[in-house]
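Curious: why these numbers?
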Amino acid sequence: MDRDAMALKIAHGDGFIAALDQSGGSSPKALSAYGIGPETYSSGEEMFTLIHAMRCRVLNSPSFNSDSILGAILFEQTMNGGDGRGGPFVAALRAKGIVPFLKVDQGLEDMREGVQLMKPMTRLSKLCERARSLGVFGTKMRAVIHQANEAGIERIVRQQIDCGIQILEHGLVPILEPEVSLACPERSKAERILLELAEREIARLPADRKIIWKLTIPEQDEFYDQLAQSEKVMRVLALSGGYTRDEACKKLSHQSQMIASFSRALLEGLEVNMSAEAFDRAIGESIEQIKQASFSPA
């Protein structure tokens, strides 16, 4: 696929985007759910080796294919790693017709004004250059909103748009992820502030350039429809947050302009000791449920 074909697939394809970008903070939980406890590894390097092996197993599962998976978001080590069969991970994704994205943020700042901004992205240009050289289509970066604080939310949206503009300059399509925590005490209010600021700030994007939003499934049905229809927005994705897969899919089915980009919910039910057949059956059932939720009528 060339970049035009990838853009068309992401903008209009029937399916969803898999998130295989667990960080150092979320990897231990992902491994524990998979049946690999913290006593199994003694260093960060060993931990990432184990989670990379899990990602390779997902990648090589026959059910993980472009019939349902439009794209996949990768952690840096995964982007630079092998596919478990002697080839590069990104090349294996592209061979399956799955569009690769790269997580580029370097973690979160401490909370201030009710939000956690991204830490300074000192490696952004190098990461973008490396990703582009490997055939990666876009990037993803996450910040978190904990309170309905307008000043804090404005800082998050501006930071996301500022970094998005830099990423666009490298020829990549950014996924902006200002996550509203499910624990936010005034979540509906926070979502209203976020939507207003998102619609305002995307006006700063260069002409004829598009970005992707990845957002918490909102409390109000069809809440992000207008944002999804903006000429500067390629797609609006939904994150699963702290929901189970059943909960996330039920809520997503009432948002006709959002498709899934699930991580933990996608991998729910997978176990390291499963046979190849049982593993493929489990990931296949998960993929089918998430795809149906992404395209269910409200």
